[in-house]
Amino acid sequence: MDRKYLLPLAEAQAVVDALGMQARALTIDGERRLAYASTYFDTPGLDSYLLAARKRRRRFKVRTRTYLDSGECFLEVKTRGARGTTVKQRIPCTPDDADRLTADGRAFVADCLERTRVYVPGQAAALADSLVPVIGTSYERTTLHLPQDRARVTVDTDLKWIDLGADAAPGREASADGLVIVETKNPATPSPVDRLLWARGHRPAKISKYATGMALLNPQLPANKWHRVLGRELAATQDSQPGHLAFAA
């Protein structure tokens, strides 16, 4: 069960501090903040975005994700499974292909859409062939583990979006530097982090790095699903300065 929360930096820091020795931080080569970049692909008619905006059950998301510190890159396809679960399938790709889909990549996307019954075979191949890059994201992520509760928490800071659409103005971008996305990942029951967030007055937010960024950069798109996040939290942070969390040794 995944839950996302959108918090001011100071509040996210308070939550991390309150965890104390309950949590362990993922550290790779001495680094706890790891840099990520993603490119999201959609059809010219924005089928992926509109299916999510209209809350369709059979929706999909296609992106590449690059782990900038290690140089690893993957092509990922997300679909909806039984009982609202998220099914993520991925294959490795080269960083040179992070902003485009190769023939093998398009075949992989079509196969994923067919096997999860989002589209029938002919439709899946045609859709995969039509995909183009529409938006890019970058951010830094810290991952925490709560061993006793079998729960994980990801903390994303310095989130930025850049418009990659064919009609985009050069360099058009937006940021959420004053906000932190905290995502809890639990087996079933709420984790201590969820309960701590609730006790501090925070509730899960409807936010998708892809869809929220698209709506932020393209105000003409239907965005009722993300209206609160766009009109309140993100609207208040467009002129804020970037910041990072501090973690105890």
Automatic annotation (TrEMBL):
Gene3D superfamilies associated with the record: VTC, catalytic tunnel domain
Pfam families assigned to the protein according to its UniProt record, in alphabetical order: VTC (PF09359)
Domain VTC per the UniProt entry, residue ranges: 2-217
The protein's name in its UniProt record: VTC domain-containing protein
